[in-house]
Amino acid sequence: MEIKVGTVGGSSTIGRQSDDTGLESLQFCEEIQGLMTIPAENASSFTALLELPATQALELLHSPDSAAAAVVNDDSVHHCIKDVPKPYFSAFNCNLTFPTNSGLIERVTKLSILAKEHSPETTSSVPLNSSVNFEKVKNEPTTDTDSNPNPLQTLISDPKVENTNQRSAKRKEREKKGRGSTKKSKNESNEDAEKLPYVHVRARRGQATDSHSLAERARREKINARMKLLQELVPGCNKISGTALVLDEIINHVQSLQRQVEFLSMRLAAVNPRVDFNIESILATENEPILESNFPTMVSPLMWPEIPVNGTRQQYQPQWHFDGSVNQQGWARDEHNHHNFSPPENSLLSYDSSANSASLHSNQLKMEL
Amino acid sequence: MPNSKSAITLLNSTSSRFRFARTFLRLFSRIKSQRSATFASAPPDQLKRQSQRIKMVAYSSMARVAGPRRAWARALLFKLQTRPRHRTLMRRKRRPSTSPDDQVGKLRRLLPGGETMDVCTLLEETANYIHCLSTQVKVMKAISDQHLSTPN
């Protein structure tokens, strides 16, 4: 602001002091041209700002220094040339194109020289010229500038008003653009929601269709499916309705199971501290009852296609102990076992391992004991 | 686990029972052998410790059978492998307050590692956990029955 005021003041004083000397008018012209060339980019960008994309416009508007400087530069320049009245300046600024402007400047200088020659009695030579010129160009009333006796005041006071005018115009423009962009984004989001992930979730009539409610509905369906699975898993939970009650039942079941594990571990610890520990006997006595006498009480025998005959049963046991005694347990090992664990493969494995390790196994047992 | 995600089929339950029995027996026999090695005169204090160890073994074998893909199994193994003091410190630092009131919060505290799950995973893991736990209970019951019936 200050710099411009200074330059403007200088130029205006030059305009005032130059009564009829063409040399000073030439200097004035040069100065104007210098002023014009400097803000030319700013001004052009400022005029082009209306056609700019919204982001750049916003950037320009949000960097108040450059924008305001551009505005005030423009203002000062144009006021120096021809005290432009406020409301039309913006229109002029919009239509301003600088290649033609050089010719205009020449015309202005000629006219200013002519005007100085013709009417030296005006306090400021420039405003009258500008009014003449401007009536040629644009049909502009010069009431404001003529009523103002001091051009400096107009120079200082005008840009503010003009800034506000232009700013308001820009703001409206920006708002329009903003509305357009929001509309666009809304449309895009709707399209995305239609495209995106929950294709299997269909909104029935009267249900919300935006992405959030679709996702929420999918989540609820998932949870309901899980609850149904849990209901099937927990005994006596099928007849209960209501999520809270079902969850209560599930919690009770889990707690009872954990307590059972604790109790059983206590029982297992309490059991046979004095029974001599014989793995073979344990395996021989335990595994068969587990598989044949105890399980059929829980599982019907139809589900036991792989129940081995006792002969093959005997072949399983060395392999089990082989696993237990030799291998260090680990995830990989366990996973390997699990994937391989199907009855035919297992029988093969047990054949191999028992054939190889039957003698070795008994030796190991003796070593361990 | 090849078919852990699908509904629990009967074949899977039988084969998983095999696995449970095998893993648990392996660890259990190790404990027993250790104890039989050190066993000269058992004070009553040792019985408690022994039961604690057996419980840990039961849980860890369960988690191993369930496999590393299950969140509860991972959490359980982590819990069993780290020291309790460590654990409380870490937990206190990480999660100052859980929702105590509702059933979901309760379930969360019951399930190992459930405090960091969302509801969907929590229910899924609970289903798997219940299945594994019940199988483990059956296996342990069978073993203890066998023990009680045979030795004396």
TrEMBL record, chain A:
<keyword id="KW-0539">Nucleus</keyword>
<dbReference type="GO" id="GO:0005634">
    <property type="term" value="C:nucleus"/>
</dbReference>
<dbReference type="InterPro" id="IPR036638">
    <property type="entry name" value="HLH_DNA-bd_sf"/>
</dbReference>
<feature type="compositionally biased region" description="Basic residues">
    <location>
        <begin position="168"/>
        <end position="184"/>
    </location>
</feature>
<protein>
    <submittedName>
        <fullName>Transcription factor bHLH48</fullName>
    </submittedName>
</protein>
<keyword id="KW-0804">Transcription</keyword>
<dbReference type="GO" id="GO:0003700">
    <property type="term" value="F:DNA-binding transcription factor activity"/>
</dbReference>
<keyword id="KW-0805">Transcription regulation</keyword>
<feature type="compositionally biased region" description="Basic and acidic residues">
    <location>
        <begin position="185"/>
        <end position="196"/>
    </location>
</feature>
<feature type="compositionally biased region" description="Polar residues">
    <location>
        <begin position="142"/>
        <end position="167"/>
    </location>
</feature>
<dbReference type="GO" id="GO:0046983">
    <property type="term" value="F:protein dimerization activity"/>
</dbReference>
<dbReference type="InterPro" id="IPR024097">
    <property type="entry name" value="bHLH_ZIP_TF"/>
</dbReference>
<feature type="domain" description="BHLH">
    <location>
        <begin position="207"/>
        <end position="257"/>
    </location>
</feature>
<feature type="region of interest" description="Disordered">
    <location>
        <begin position="138"/>
        <end position="196"/>
    </location>
</feature>
<dbReference type="Pfam" id="PF00010">
    <property type="entry name" value="HLH"/>
</dbReference>
<dbReference type="InterPro" id="IPR011598">
    <property type="entry name" value="bHLH_dom"/>
</dbReference>
From TrEMBL, chain B:
<keyword id="KW-0539">Nucleus</keyword>
<keyword id="KW-0805">Transcription regulation</keyword>
<keyword id="KW-0804">Transcription</keyword>
<dbReference type="InterPro" id="IPR036638">
    <property type="entry name" value="HLH_DNA-bd_sf"/>
</dbReference>
<dbReference type="GO" id="GO:0006355">
    <property type="term" value="P:regulation of DNA-templated transcription"/>
</dbReference>
<dbReference type="InterPro" id="IPR044549">
    <property type="entry name" value="bHLH_AtIBH1-like"/>
</dbReference>
<dbReference type="GO" id="GO:0005634">
    <property type="term" value="C:nucleus"/>
</dbReference>
<dbReference type="GO" id="GO:0046983">
    <property type="term" value="F:protein dimerization activity"/>
</dbReference>
<dbReference type="GO" id="GO:0000976">
    <property type="term" value="F:transcription cis-regulatory region binding"/>
</dbReference>
<protein>
    <submittedName>
        <fullName>Transcription factor IBH1</fullName>
    </submittedName>
</protein>
<dbReference type="InterPro" id="IPR044660">
    <property type="entry name" value="IBH1-like"/>
</dbReference>
